[in-house]
UniProtKB/TrEMBL annotation:
Listed Low complexity bias regions: 73-85
Compositional bias annotation for Basic and acidic residues: 38-50
InterPro entries reported for this sequence: SHOCT (IPR018649)
Span list, region Disordered: 28-91
Pfam families in UniProt: SHOCT
Protein's UniProt name: SHOCT domain-containing protein
Domain SHOCT: 95-121
Length: 122
């Protein structure tokens, strides 16, 4: 007599096997999603820190350029740069504004500011 084959629902072992496969698949999928999210977060953090470092370097470069411009303005004011051609009218306004900024920042004292202003307006 051939073995009896069961029809209908799977037995206890079949149900346990199916549950184990479903549970394993769900766990593997959840782990993969978690790893992918962690990798994205890490990449975003690295980008943010790189952008922050770039921004800080740009700020330092801008500050250094400003210091160089101020030093050049002080030197020009101290030397009286009389060999230069008279500046254009728009340039005079820009230079006066720059001198005013240097004076208000404390880079130029009142005598230097007045002397440089007189040279520009002469």
């Amino acid at each position: 007599m051939p073995p009896l084959r069961r029809r209908g629902r799977p037995g206890l072992i079949g149900t346990m096997a199916r549950t184990a496969v479903i549970s394993g698949t769900a766990t593997a999928t959840a782990n993969a999603v978690t790893r992918r999210q962690a990798a994205r977060d890490q990449a975003a953090d690295e980008r943010t820190s790189h952008e922050q470092a770039t921004f800080e370097q740009q700020q330092l470069d801008a500050a250094e350029q400003q210091r160089q411009r101020e030093a050049a303005a002080r030197q020009a004011a101290a030397q009286g740069d009389q060999t230069a051609a008279p500046p254009a009218p728009d340039d005079v306004t820009a230079r006066l504004l720059q001198l005013a900024e240097l004076y208000s920042a404390g880079v130029l004292d009142e005598a230097e500011f007045t002397a440089a202003k007189e040279r520009l307006l002469a």
